[in-house]
Structures are given as structure tokens and as C-alpha cells.
Amino acid sequence: MEHITLLLGIVIVTALVFDFTNGFHDTANAMATTISTGALKPKTAVAMSAVLNLVGAFLSVEVAKTISGGIINEDGLKTEVIFAALVGAILWNLLTWLLGLPSSSSHALFGGLIGAAVMSMGWSSVNGGTVVTKVLLPAVAAPLVAGIAATLATRLTYKISSRADEKATSKGYRAGQIASAGLVSLAHGTNDAQKTMGIITLALITGGVLNPGANPPMWVIVSAGVAIALGTYLGGWRIIRTMGKGLTELAPPQGFAAQTSAATAILASSHIGFSLSTTQVCSGAVMGAGLGRKGGVVRWSTATRMFVAWGLTLPAAGLVGAGAELLTKQGTWGIATTAALLIGGSAVIWSLSRRQPVDHTNVTADEIGTPGATGADAEPAGVVTTAIAAVTPPPAGPVATTAEGTATDSDVAADVQMTLSPASAASATAVADSARPATV
């Protein structure tokens, strides 16, 4: 009994750690566009989001019920299975955070839970119908619905404000964007904090503390809300950068349309108990807003990597969860080994992230470590581009004169630079300087 009590405590702590990673992993959902458009300063944005995530945790328990009594059959479920599931979810969250990919924390949790349960009790332990109707179908439909809604909302917004003063409307949309970002944060707390509540409630049921079908106790609701709020305040800056600048460049009207569409979809799904991915909804809305503006573009290379991460989340977290469960089934030494691997893996990922840190001071920079880049997807000029730029003549026309009568080398170089990208211009100037005859 003492061993079960200790294990249950470990599972509860691990669940709160997952909730913490969920917070900083998904901060971008609410605040990436608000930060990228300059509506709020980075630290102010994450502080506001943290408070509203905490408030949202108290609004509903429908999603928690779906997890604690829907996806996995409770009969015969052991506490160590839940521990193994959380290991898979946490490691996948940290890995995708390191890569700056806005993958789904929800699907990481579901994947880990399904993989661990199958390893422990076989496929019969999984309620396939619930997985399809409340996990897979929303995963496909929600980002599409949010994306289409954001596209239409963006076009309508620009049409309505086409004759208005741009500066005045920009201020108004920034204010609206702050309000809609707060709504997304509230919705995120309502949906995602409940997933941890559901996991802890499921652990308490398997440990015999609660009866099957019981609602989460108040202390579970409070602890889950605080954990996700603290993680949100930490700020998942790497993913905020991808969402805010990596997918598309957003103006305040687009940010307002994207966040309003995402918040509506998340709140509606939470009300009916759909445990959808807020990350997928918000990413779909951001891409829809990017396509909704005339001349707007989506960086499909970034989007493709994100789609791949979405597809890999369930199976990858499931495999890690199954491997962790294979260890935990061995007894105390297996549980201790699994805990050590979780701590060690997390430490390695953290140390790798320090090689190229992203925080509130550089999250809106065009390109980390690439001087002269002009966008999130900017790349250094290639050899051919640099060579062509170096021999490109200045624009046709009369030669400018200086006070001494003729244009200097620096004047010509400046004319050339005006026709080149920043990276190519720098290379062209260097080549020109090297080609200049030496003064005797």
C-alpha cells in the first residue's frame, strides 16, 4: 500500500510537470501574433496569458471527464501505466519545443496514454470509438474550420476598413487583438488544463482514492491551473517565434481575425467535451489569416515541417510511452530507471537549447544569428547570387558628381547596394574593395 501511495504521488507530480510543459509549449497559441504585431510587449503578453489560463481552468470539467473516463478503459488500469504515458508526452513536448515546432501537447498526452495502455493490457484497453470521435476527427476538422473562418474574417475585416484611416484602424485592431488573445488564453486554460486534471483524476481512480466516474477534486483543479499558468509565464519563446513570424507575416487586422476564430473554435469544443489541440486550431487560424489578406503568403516549408510533427505526435509519443511502460512493468527498479531517463533526457534537451537561445529579447528578431536577414525564412545568399551581385553594374543614367566632380568608389558601391539584398550587397562591397587597385 505504501508503494502504491508513493507511486501515486510520483504520478501526480509528473502530471503537473507535463502541465507545466504544456503551458510554455502552448503559450504561442494565444500570444504569438500579439507579440509579432507589437500589440503587447513579450513579457506583458505571457503574464496576461498566464493569469487567464489559471482562470480558464475553473470554467469547465467536460474535457477532464473525456480523458478520465473515455479514452482508456479503467478496469485493470495500473498507476504505472499513467506514469509511462506522461513520460512519453513530456519528452515529445520538450523535443518539439527544442525544434520550435508547434505540435500538439494534447496528442502527445493521448499518444503516450494509448501506447502505455496497449503495452500493459493490449488493444482492448483503448476505446477506439472515443478516440476517433473526440480526438482524431476534431484534429482534422478543427484547424480547417478555424483556418477557413480566419480567411473569411480577414477578408471581411480588410473590406470594411478599406476606406478608413490606416493608423486609426491599426490602433483599434491592436486593442481588439489584445482582447481576442485574452479570449484564446482563457479558452486554452479551459481546454488544456483539464487534460492534466483528467490524468490526475484517472490516477486517483486507479489508486482507489476516487470512485470511477468521479469529477476532479478542487485541489486537482487548483494545482493543474497553477502549473499551466507558471509554464505559460515562462514563455515558450522558440515556438512563439515560429507561430508569430515563421508561418506568415501578420498585420494587426489579421492577428485579430486569427485569434478570434481560434478562440471561438476552442471554446465551442470545450463546451461539448472535444479534447482538440489548441495548437492545431491556432496554427490553422494563423495560416488562414495569412491567406486572407491580398498578397499575403504562407511559408509552406515551415508549415510542412509543422504538419509532419502533427502526424508524428500520436505514434511517437505512443512508442515512448510503450517503451516506458515496458520498463515500469519490471517493478521498482524499472520505475526508477524510467524516472532517471526522463530527467536525463530533459536535461540533454535543455542543454541543447542553450546553444542558440531564444527569449523575450530576441523573439521578434528577423533571424537569430543571421545578420541582414529580412524575414523568418531568409537565407544567406548563395555563391552564384553573390558572384552575380558583385559584377552587376549600377543603374543606367548620368554619373553622379560629387563636390570634387566625379562619383567615388563608395558612391558607386552605394548605388549597387540599393539594387541588392542586404546579404548580397555586403558581399558585393567586399569583392569591389578587393578588386580596387592598390595605391602606390
TrEMBL record:
Ranges in a coiled coil: none
A Pfam family recorded for this sequence: PHO4
Record carries keyword Transport: yes
Localization annotation: Membrane
Entry annotated with the keyword Transmembrane: yes
Gene Ontology terms for molecular function: phosphate transmembrane transporter activity
Membrane topology: Multi-pass membrane protein
GO biological process terms held by the UniProt record: phosphate ion transmembrane transport
Keywords: Membrane, Phosphate transport, Transmembrane, Transmembrane helix, Transport
Transmembrane segments: 6-24, 45-61, 81-101, 108-126, 132-153, 196-214, 220-240, 307-327, 333-352
GO CC annotation terms, alphabetical: membrane
Family of the protein in this entry: Belongs to the inorganic phosphate transporter (PiT) (TC 2.A.20) family.
Name listed for the protein in its UniProt record: Phosphate transporter
Species name: Streptomyces aurantiacus JA 4570
